[in-house]
Design goal:
heterodimer, A: 255 residues, alpha+beta, four-stranded antiparallel sheet, rod-shaped, B: 66% helix, 0% strand, globular
């Protein structure tokens, strides 16, 4: 008899019998549980409030029997689930923010890395240029030395009539007989043509070399003796005799 | 951790298993929860047997002390926690009812001479309370059996002797009485 068992008014034999049956028959066990729930509910319905001092007195008398270690602990499962939820949310937010920061920083980094490479290239180029300039400066210094050496004769070769805008300055080393010149103002030789230097020796023109594409001071053939120098525009490679109407500049040697 | 406890206090109910485990581990918070959730229901049971509020209060305290100290004896396989607690409450109240101190106590003044153990003259001050009130509405032959067994703690054998009826009849009538009671208290 289920009700008497649950309410506690069953015989010990009845109770034992019912327990045995409930183990064998789940429907009996279920029926017992239903009755127990009914007992709980009807007890709640007939509940009588208790005055507050009873709880106080009860807890005071049992004070020494409580577990002191974790008096504030609730079922760990519960606490973990709530705390875990907050923790998970916070962690996720942090992760997203961190990921965003990573993307941004990576972009910055690649940009900086590229800038750095570009800067390195620029520097290398500049270094190379520097060396070139240095070489040219050294070259020019040498040329200045040559031009200002003792025994160097300067022969100014102004443009001939009709070509007055031209000017070439020739340097003739009276000791070594080397000939140098600077084209102060001379039009660029057209394709297939080249300027040629002539030394006028006793009225006769002598080939003194072709004007190459030289920077600053050009070196031409040595000349032993000359009264004047002239430059004509010939075909590329030169000509044995000068083309007189193609003369551009002419300079007399001062004695 | 303390902050989390404050956040969680009273926010989530325990399952019975959690509650029993924590009580076994002597956790004060779990016992406090138990008291808050069940004290008034058990008090209702106690007062239906021992109506005097002061004495009922003492009984309630005693009941909770027993629950605290005997929790290891509770076997979940044999039934729900509340059924076990209800049983302790009822038996403790009945013990108090029968104790010499109670019988002799001046507080007995709240109970009249009419309060006898014989069913046809029983008047109980708690007649208008909860379960007892519903019992009043039952057939006489049912009412008396519930009154004697549930509220006064007599065994079926004792009742058979007292009422001069066969034990088999007691069993049958009690069964019917309780079914009636359950139907009436269908909450």
């Amino acid at each position: 008899m289920i009700e008497s068992y649950v309410l506690g008014v069953a015989d010990p034999q009845e109770a034992a019998e019912l327990q045995r049956l409930s183990l064998e028959h789940p429907e009996i066990a279920a029926a017992i549980e239903e009755c127990e729930k009914w007992l709980n509910t009807s007890a709640n319905a007939g509940a009588v409030p208790v005055s507050a001092n009873i709880k106080q007195a009860l807890f005071n008398s049992l004070d020494a029997e409580f577990n002191p270690a974790t008096t504030a602990a609730k079922a760990p499962g519960r606490r973990v689930s709530i705390a875990l939820r907050y923790l998970t949310a916070a962690s996720l937010l942090l992760l997203i923010a961190s990921a965003g920061l990573n993307v941004y920083l990576y972009k910055q980094y690649t940009r900086a890395a590229n800038d750095y490479i570009a800067l390195q290239n620029e520097r290398n180029t500049m270094l190379a240029d520097n060396r070139i300039y240095q070489t040219r400066i050294d070259g020019m210094y040498q040329q200045m030395q040559i031009m200002s050496a003792p025994g160097m004769l300067k022969v100014s070769m102004p443009g001939v009539s009709g070509k007055e805008n031209n000017l070439v300055t020739l340097y003739w080393d009276t000791n070594t007989k080397d000939v140098y010149l600077i084209t102060n103002s001379l039009p660029k030789a057209p394709a297939g043509k080249q300027y040629q230097l002539w030394a006028l020796v006793d009225g006769k023109p002598v080939d003194a070399g072709m004007l190459e594409d030289c920077e600053g001071l050009c070196r031409l053939k040595p000349v032993q003796k000359a009264q004047a120098f002239a430059i004509t525009l010939e075909k590329a490679g030169g000509s044995p005799t000068p083309t007189m109407d193609q003369m551009y500049v002419l300079g007399n040697v001062r004695s | 951790m303390h902050l989390i406890y404050l956040l969680l206090k009273d926010s989530q109910p325990y399952t019975e298993r959690e509650l029993v485990n924590l009580l076994r581990r002597r956790e004060q918070a779990a016992f406090s929860y138990l008291y808050d959730h069940y004290s008034s229901a058990l008090n209702g049971v106690i007062t239906s047997i021992v109506p005097d509020t002061h004495i009922a209060g003492d009984v309630l305290q005693e009941v909770f002390v027993k629950i605290w100290r005997q929790i290891d004896a509770y076997d979940p396989a044999k039934g729900r926690l509340f059924t076990w607690m209800h049983s302790i409450a009822r038996s403790t109240a009945i013990d108090t009812l029968r104790s010499k101190d109670f019988q002799n106590s001046k507080r007995n003044n709240t109970l009249t001479e009419d309060y006898t153990l014989l069913p046809d003259r029983s008047q109980h001050p708690a007649d208008d309370l909860g379960l007892r009130k519903i019992v009043q509405g039952l057939k006489e032959e049912h009412k008396v059996l519930i009154e004697l067994s549930y509220f006064q703690g007599y065994t079926q054998e004792e009742m058979a002797k007292m009422l001069n009826i066969p034990l088999g009849t007691v069993k049958t009538r009690l069964r019917a009485a309780l079914l009636q009671l359950r139907q009436k208290v269908n909450v």
